[in-house]
């Protein structure tokens, strides 16, 4: 409705836009006890993450885990915290990714596309960013969970939260969700280039590249979650793009939590086994993470590195996530443009 056609008492309607909302896992607001407890409480109460019955899980979570874990998790976050900006590295990197993607899409599509980011847990919340986009005139929103491989505990719960946010809108925008991009040629190429760049700066090529993915309970695979298969395919496509042999790299899984069996081999155990087998020089990459975070900067670069060195390993190289690397931004923009097809010119 144009200004001339709108009655005087009619609410203003902003010019229509298309929104691109990037989503990542989340971050505590600070590493001190209460922010950590709030963040962990939200994360570990998600039924997509921990699917035990509430009557069994919540007492354990509230009375035991959330009494102790904020201290240990807070110490881990403190060791990697961006003190200059008072935020986690994940927040810093996601802001940088968003700024670069927004600039690239503005060049391609002008002011008709609005780009922002949200977090599944913590701030900025998915609901707040959907509200901002609708208020700004976004009549279409492309929701993009920044997880290359699909998992119920990552992509699906992010989508769930997006759909919940839409339930609060009087005028719901048309919406699309971006599927997993684990085999997208531009993503695989960006991964390969990061490996080539890291290896190019070394005096001696590592004995093996460990592709460490976030783990999940084995039971989820048996229930039909495609994550394990998509991780294996990412590793295979990376190997093919690099022109390497099967023995040059291996797929492992990290971040095991709780008593049940998770996807194997476990990274922390496997790197120790590699050292005992004589592979004293290894590199580790984390293809499931779009941005460096607690699981890469602290777990891989400290806990997993320590496991390797204690078993006799000598040279450990962590290859950073793709973060806001230009090749990664170009890959993400390619995925976005493919999913905006028909919405923008």
Task: Summarize the helices and strands and which ones pair or pack.
Layout: E1 17-27, H1 33-44, H2 54-80, H3 89-109, E2 113-122, H4 126-135, E3 138-145, H5 152-167, E4 174-177, H6 185-200, E5 208-214, H7 218-222, H8 227-242, E6 249-254, H9 267-276, E7 281-285, H10 294-310, E8 315-319, H11 326-339
Parallel strand pairs: 1-2, 1-3, 3-4, 5-6, 5-7, 7-8
Describe this structure in words.
The structure is a single chain. This protein is α/β, with parallel strands linked by helices and 345 residues long. The protein has 2 domains: 17-181 and 327-339, 3-Layer(aba) Sandwich (Rossmann fold); 185-319, Rossmann fold. Helices cover 48% and strands 16% of the residues. It contains 11 helices and 8 strands. The protein has helices at 33-44, 54-80, 89-109, 126-135, 152-167, 185-200, 218-222, 227-242, 267-276, 294-310, 326-339, and strands at 17-27, 113-122, 138-145, 174-177, 208-214, 249-254, 281-285, 315-319. Helix 10 (294-310) links the parallel strand 7 (281-285) and strand 8 (315-319). The mean pLDDT is 95.
């Amino acid at each position: 409705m144009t200004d001339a056609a709108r009655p005087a008492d009619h609410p203003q309607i902003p010019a229509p836009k298309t929104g691109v909302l990037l989503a990542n896992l989340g971050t505590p607001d600070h590493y001190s006890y209460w922010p950590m407890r709030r963040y962990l409480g939200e994360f570990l109460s998600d039924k997509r993450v921990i699917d035990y019955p509430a009557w069994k899980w919540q007492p354990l979570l509230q009375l035991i885990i959330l009494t102790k874990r904020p201290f240990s998790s807070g110490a881990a976050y403190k060791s990697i915290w961006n003190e200059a900006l008072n935020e986690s590295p994940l927040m810093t990197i996601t802001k940088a990714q968003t700024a670069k993607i927004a600039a690239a899409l503005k060049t391609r599509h002008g002011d008709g596309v609005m780009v922002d980011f949200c977090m599944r847990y913590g701030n900025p919340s998915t609901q707040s960013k959907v509200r901002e986009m609708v208020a700004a005139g976004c009549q279409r929103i492309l929701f993009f969970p920044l997880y290359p491989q699909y998992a119920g505990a990552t992509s699906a719960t992010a989508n769930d939260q997006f759909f919940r946010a839409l339930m609060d809108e009087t005028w719901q925008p048309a919406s699309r969700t971006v599927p997993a991009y684990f085999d997208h040629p531009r993503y695989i190429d960006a991964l390969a280039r990061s490996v080539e760049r890291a290896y190019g700066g070394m005096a001696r090529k590592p004995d093996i590249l460990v592709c460490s993915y976030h783990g999940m309970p084995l039971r989820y695979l048996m229930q039909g979650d495609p994550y394990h298969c998509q991780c294996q395919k990412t590793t295979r496509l990376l190997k093919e793009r690099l022109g390497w042999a099967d023995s040059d790299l291996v797929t492992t899984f990290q971040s095991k939590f709780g008593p049940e069996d998770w996807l194997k081999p476990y990274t922390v155990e496997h790197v120790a086994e590699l050292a005992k087998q004589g592979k004293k020089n290894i590199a580790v990459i984390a293809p499931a993470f779009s941005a460096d975070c607690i699981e890469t900067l602290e777990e891989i670069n400290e806990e997993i590195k320590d496991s390797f060195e204690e078993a006799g390993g000598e040279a450990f190289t962590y290859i950073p996530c793709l973060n806001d690397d230009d090749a990664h931004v170009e890959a993400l923009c390619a995925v976005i443009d493919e999913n905006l097809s028909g919405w923008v010119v």
